[in-house]
UniProtKB/TrEMBL annotation:
PANTHER family: BILIRUBIN OXIDASE, CUPREDOXIN SUPERFAMILY PROTEIN. This is Multicopper oxidase CueO. CDD domains: CuRO_3_CueO_FtsP (cd13890). It comes from Streptomyces drozdowiczii. Keywords: Metal-binding, Oxidoreductase, Signal. PROSITE patterns: MULTICOPPER_OXIDASE2, TAT. It catalyses: 4 Cu(+) + O2 + 4 H(+) = 4 Cu(2+) + 2 H2O. Residues 86-194, 249-312, 382-489 form the Plastocyanin-like domain. The keyword Signal applies. Gene3D superfamilies: Cupredoxins - blue copper proteins. The lineage of its organism: Bacteria, Bacillati, Actinomycetota, Actinomycetes, Kitasatosporales. InterPro entries: Cu-oxidase-like_N, Cu-oxidase_2nd, Cu-oxidase_C, Cu-oxidase_fam, Cu_oxidase_Cu_BS, Cupredoxin, TAT_signal.
């Protein structure tokens, strides 16, 4: 079992501090003084913004979108991307970018084998590209960083959903703008289900709650401040678009679908009383077996499904979900949300000892290695994969259709975390630093965490669609710096 002690030992990263390095420290050792960091602003101090009293607002339940039509066996959604105002901080209106006016975007519920058609109408005033993260889709609907469409135009994306259940999400992917556009609100959840998942007696209905986590940096007027690589300045934690909310729960089991939609922040989550919970899923759906833990690490874009059993607490209990990882003042970034146990309730749900069976891995047909690095070059931040900045005219990796390859990915920075996301495919983690993965990484993944100096070995099979796709660090500020490359499946 991964305990809080072993997780915090693994995360004890300190150093000179380059692009989130020095700030990537456990909150138990982080200084408590508010930050005014001039590093990213050429010497001008930037305040961290107004403090917010925690647990004053309820956790909003994300709206479930309704298809406007059904045609040819597909559900059709018309979504308008537009700028609007949202009350994030109490009493203040914040300018945000949204899908249909929702901050964050609403939930699309889909089913394996039933296509979804999304007609996205751009009224943002900026170019955009919509990527369904974790989905196996034709290249024309992948949301390539260079395949953007302008404000005042529309784009139709078709998602075949020819893959098993998974908690996916959609977000902007316009290169050089993806970081700021997502930060300002362009992301939403896409929950794909199937018969395997629905046959299990897991918590469902009102007891199945999606929670999108992120951080933000506000000025004194409540407006979002965007500064590239502003890890320490983004010091207000949001859950479903609200700062430090509370959720009233019954004394029974709940399923929480957690998404880290931050640009840079890693979350190390625990319950304040140190009690265990059960992880049942990751990026690519349910794990083969449930995994009991008392700590959960989520890098940007990673998802985890967990079950928390509140029946062990008496009515009246207030239980805080904590974040034990910096950067930032622990009073601001150490709390995420609070669970208030307000009533008793019957609970027919349970977590089976076996959740799903994954097919055996096919024979390996090739092996490749990839190094991730971010540095200052000529006074400018630069992200690279294998020493090269992203070039949309260059094919970096040529892959035969049907190949099943082992990729060894290394974070060569000693003080900066990264992660690694592949479009088109879900993969299996084979090793982390030469050791077998824990139960939390035993399932299908599309994004994998790489702490400073870490090496992860994974296996991916390219047997769904041909075409050119990207892989990149999903710390989106790093991706915007060029830490991205192109692969062609031929």
């Amino acid at each position: 079992m991964v305990t809080r002690r072993t997780l915090m030992t693994a995360l004890s990263v300190t150093g000179a501090g380059l692009f989130t390095g020095a700030a990537f420290t456990p909150l138990m050792t982080a200084g408590a003084a508010p930050r005014e960091d001039a590093a990213a602003t050429g010497g001008a101090a930037v305040p961290v913004g107004p403090a917010v009293q925690p647990f004053q607002v309820p956790l909003p339940l994300l709206p479930v979108l309704t298809p406007g039509a059904t045609r040819g066996g597909a559900d059709v959604y018309d979504i308008t991307m537009r700028r609007t105002g949202a009350e994030i901080l109490p009493g203040l209106s914040t300018d945000v970018l949204t899908y249909d006016g929702h901050f964050p975007g609403g939930i699309v519920r889909a089913r394996s084998g039933r296509p979804v058609v999304m007609r996205q109408h751009n009224q943002l005033g900026v170019d955009t590209s919509v990527h369904l993260h974790g989905a196996s889709v034709p290249v024309t609907s992948d949301g390539d960083p260079m395949n953007t469409f302008a404000s005042g135009t529309s784009r139709t994306y078709t998602y075949p959903n020819q893959q098993p259940h998974a908690s996916l999400w959609y977000h902007d992917h316009a290169h050089h703008s993806e970081s700021e556009n997502c930060y300002r609100g362009l992301s939403g959840s896409y929950l794909l289900t199937d018969d395997v998942e629905e046959a299990l007696p897991l918590p469902a209905g009102r007891y199945d709650v999606t929670v999108a986590l992120r951080d933000a940096h506000f000025d004194d007027d409540g407006q979002l401040l965007y500064i590239l690589d502003d890890a320490a300045g983004r010091s207000t934690i949001l859950a479903n678009g609200k700062p430090y909310p509370y959720l009233q729960v019954a004394a029974r089991k709940y399923r929480f679908r957690l998404l880290n939609s931050s640009n840079l922040r890693f979350f190390a989550l625990r319950l304040a009383d140190g009690s265990p919970f059960t992880q049942i899923g990751s990026d690519g759906g349910l794990l083969p077996r449930p995994f009991t833990t008392d700590a959960l690490l989520l890098s940007p874009a990673e998802r985890a499904d967990v079950v928390i059993d509140f029946s062990r607490y008496p009515v009246g209990t207030r239980l805080v979900l904590e974040n034990t990882l910096g950067p930032g003042d622990p009073d601001r970034t150490g709390k995420v949300m609070r669970f208030d146990v307000v009533r008793k309730a019957p609970d027919p749900s349970r977590v089976p000892s076996v959740l799903r069976t994954l097919p055996p891995l096919p024979p390996v047909t090739g092996r490749r290695s990839f190094d991730l690095n971010v540095a200052v070059v000529g006074g400018e931040p630069q992200g690279t994969i294998n020493g090269r900045v992203y070039d949309p005219a260059r094919i970096d990796t040529d892959i035969p259709y049907g190949a099943s390859e082992v990729w060894t990915v290394t974070n060569t920075n000693t003080d900066v975390p990264h992660n690694f996301h592949m479009h088109l495919v879900q993969f299996r983690v084979l090793e982390r630093n030469g050791k077998s993965p824990t139960g939390a990484e035993a399932g299908l993944k599309d994004t994998v965490c790489l702490l400073p100096g870490e090496t992860v070995k994974l296996q991916a099979t390219f047997d769904s669609y041909r075409g050119t796709y990207v892989y990149h660090c999903h710390l989106l500020d790093h991706s915007a710096m060029g830490m991205m490359a192109r692969m062609r499946i031929r």
